[in-house]
Amino acid sequence: MAHKICKNCGEFNSASAIYCCNCNSSLRDVKKREDAIDPIKFSGKAVGYNYSEEVTLGEWIIILILSAIPILNLIVLVLLAFVWNNTSINNFGKASLILVTIGILIYFLFG
Ligand SMILES: [Zn+2]
To answer: Superkingdom, according to UniProt (predicted)?
Structure first.
């Protein structure tokens, strides 16, 4: 979703808003922001932007090599899921952990 940030008070408004819902300033000349950029909010106000960074080719190569090593890959997946400073990588790590867990359960149930 697109949105507008008030120039006057920093309030987060919907893209279609004409006046700020907090201070009533005009949002006519405020440009809509598109949302690969997530606003970082503090008590309802946008205080900054969380730029979703692209994962580079080199990072993917390191991640894929590390996640191919048995045992070590479990540690790496936990780091990717919770420590890495990138939402896409965090989701990749969490998804992999879920699949690994399901795989281990199936192995012990039927193996
Ligand atoms: Zn405002």
So the answer is: Bacteria
For residue 88, give its domain range: 57-110
Compute CA distances 71 → 3, 48, 95, 105, whole Å.
44, 39, 17, 16
CA of 7 to the centre of ligand 1 (A): 7
**Residue pair 40/14 in contact by the 8 Å Cβ criterion:** no
Residues of the chain with pLDDT under 50: 36
Q: Distance, CA 81 to ligand 1 centroid (Å)?
A: 36
61 and 46 assigned to the same domain: no
C-alpha 88 – ligand 1 centre gap (Å):
32
> 42 alpha carbon to ligand 1 midpoint, in Å?
14
Give residue 46 CA to ligand 1 midpoint distance, Å: 11
Tally of structural domains, the chain: 2
Question: Which pLDDT score, from 0 to 100, does residue 23 have?
Answer: 95
